[in-house]
Amino acid sequence: MREVFRRIIIDFQERSLRPTIKRDVQIPLFNDKIITLIGVRRCGKTSILYKMIEELRENIDSKNIVYINFEDDRLMGTTVSDLDDLIEGYFELYPEKRDEKIYLFVDEVQNIPGWEVFIRRIYDTLNVQIIITGSSSKLLSSEIATSLRGRTLTYEIFPFSFKEYLRFKNITVNLDSSKSLSFIKHNFEEYLLCGGFPETIGQEGSIQKRILSDYVNLIVYKDLIERYGITNTALLKHLIKYAFVNMATSVSITKLYNDFKSNGFKLGKETLFDYFGYLEEAYAIFSIPIFRSSVREEQRNPKKIYAIDNGLRAVYDASFSPDYSKLYENLVFLALRSKTNEVYYIKERQEIDFYCVIDGEKQLINVSVDISNPDTFEREINSLAEGMEFIGVDKSVLITKEREGSMSVGDKIVYLIPLWKWLLTHD
């Protein structure tokens, strides 16, 4: 393996990296911790590594930078015992570097069983800054918790936010410019429907759908079936379709279990729980609980499910008119979830879509695409008024398609803002 590693190291060091855009995630490269980036496949983790390497090359000898991608076909079958060949192969190439700091970038590390033992050892014994990526939350979090505790800083990576999407397309954001606003609104519609996976941007519709379908197959076969030895693949595929088509929907496992059983699927309720868990571990879907004072109360209520990207709905949904209500709500969830993993919904007399705390500030948000009907508008305002009383805050947000402004409700206030603008101004 040593010769293979040496060739991969040199091949990369001689490469000119493709241009990448700056992502909004702030990763402190120069520190004494192992940096871990986790997220769904194809969301841009490797491009973030390339951007970091590009910046390092401006000030550091490229020979001090090592990049290894364990999805490289030349490394198929690599085991943790082979990883010593990576380090020794490097120092055979550059023996003078043993006394210098090395920057080691390891992509898709979850492909090597026992990787954490190797990472921990070289972190403890060598002068090395380690940056690793993976496509499974449980894989990294469980192994970090047991083997790398105290040694790591972990960052979740999502497909492009709307800000990043516009940056990728070289669209200037100037909310005071009519020209800029016209480009922003035009591209928002595309982002809403097609999502933020980098490789899909600018592709024709049928190509986008094919790319996204390939992503789903990668998640199903590489991250789930192979990893967990799943045999009921028909059930798993049906569950994925259900989750993506029904994003931003309350889900009762018991009801879903009964529905699937009546459709002829052979399954146990525990299997359904497991499969949902696997999809969350692969960052394909998320679920949020109702906000309650105890975990037991949270568990007794249905959870709401969301998808990692709006574009995935189109892989399965053949309807002619998009469900804007679900798409809007899913985008709001992703924007919140990228800032905190503690996101809830509230249900007292009426339901409120989101409650979370970001940077110490309580946020209460409803999403309603069309509030032209007075009854709809009154219902949204009343639910937020109830929620503000329940949570003990004096302001909340109603996200809309077009309407903007504010409305007093007693001594409290509801801010109305179009989704495209909220996505650009929400920090």
From TrEMBL:
Gene3D superfamilies in the record: P-loop containing nucleotide triphosphate hydrolases
Keyword match ATP-binding: no
Keywords: Plasmid
Domain DUF4143: 222-367
Location of the AAA domain: 32-166
SUPFAM superfamilies: P-loop containing nucleoside triphosphate hydrolases
Keyword RNA-binding applies: no
Pfam families, sorted: AAA_14, DUF4143
Record's protein name: ATPase
Organism: Sulfuricurvum kujiense (strain ATCC BAA-921 / DSM 16994 / JCM 11577 / YK-1)
Lineage, opening ranks: Bacteria, Pseudomonadati, Campylobacterota, Epsilonproteobacteria, Campylobacterales
